Amino acid sequence: MKLLAVPAAVLMATAFASSAQAQQYQMPMYPQAYVGADAMFWELDPDRGPSADSVGLRLNGGMKFNDYLAAEAHLGTGGSDGAVDLEYLVGAYAKGILPVSQEFRLYGLAGFTEVDFDIDRESGFSYGGGAEFDVAPNLAIGADYMRYLDKSDYTFDAASVGVRYRF
Q1: What local confidence, expressed as pLDDT, does residue 79 receive?
Q2: Which helix (H) or strand (E) holds 19?
Q3: Quick one: which of 19, 58, 95, 130 could link to 38 by a disulfide (CB 3.0–4.6 Å)?
Q4: How far apart are CA 22 and CA 14, in angstroms?
Q5: How many CB atoms lie within 10 A of CB 64?
Q6: Beta bridge partners of 54
Q7: Residue bearing the bigger pLDDT, 50 or 90
Q8: Dihedral, CA atoms, 125, 131, 136, 138, nearest 10 degrees?
Q9: Is the pTM of this model over 0.85?
């Protein structure tokens, strides 16, 4: 009788520990929506003439389909260096994700953006990359760099830092 009691107790303790560990690292349910806000440091760099740069606000949101793939949208505005004002940017992107650890991810973005400056409005292919780190179960901080436009006579880039909330 004692022989059966010891293995049963060990099995129960192991099951309890596994259950506690599973609760600590809950697997996310997919699809998983998220929203975020960033400080966006943008630069308009023409081939001829002086460049323009400033700081604006970028909102983003998306849907994560699994650990490796998401769709994301950006809406940005603000900032002026006197010569050029950024009225808005709006874009949609496919997001490839590389989970480095449970809390840290690298990602790449590729898609399409429309940018409206007070002097011109253009649209085109966009790409970039970044990283994010979980600071709480549903909250992450992140940074990325995007090439929003690459036209024959100028480029428009932005580096952003901010927070993301996952639902």
Answers
A1: 83
A2: helix 2-24
A3: 58
A4: 12
A5: 19
A6: 42
A7: 90
A8: 20
A9: no
Under 8 Å between Cβ of 72 and 35: no
Backbone angles phi and psi of 24, in degrees to 5: -65, -40
Q: How far is the C-alpha of 86 from the C-alpha of 52, rounded, in Å? A: 10
Would you say how long the chain is, in residues? 167
81-90, 103-112, 129-138 — which is least confidently predicted?
Answer: 81-90
**Assigned token pair, 69:** 């793939």
Q: Which residue has the tokens 């549903």?
A: 138
Give per-residue pLDDT as tens, 148-158: 999 988 999 99
Q: Could you tell me if 44 and 150 are in contact, meaning their C-beta atoms sit under 8 angstroms apart?
A: no
Upper half-sphere CA count for residue 37 (Cβ side, 13 Å): 3
Nearest Cα neighbor of 158 from 9, 17, 38 is: 38
The pair of three-digit structure tokens given for residue 35, joined into one six-digit string? 């929203």
86: CB partners within 8 A, 6+ apart: 42, 54, 56, 76, 77, 78, 79, 80, 115, 116, 117
Please give the average per-residue pLDDT across 110-130, as a whole number.
95
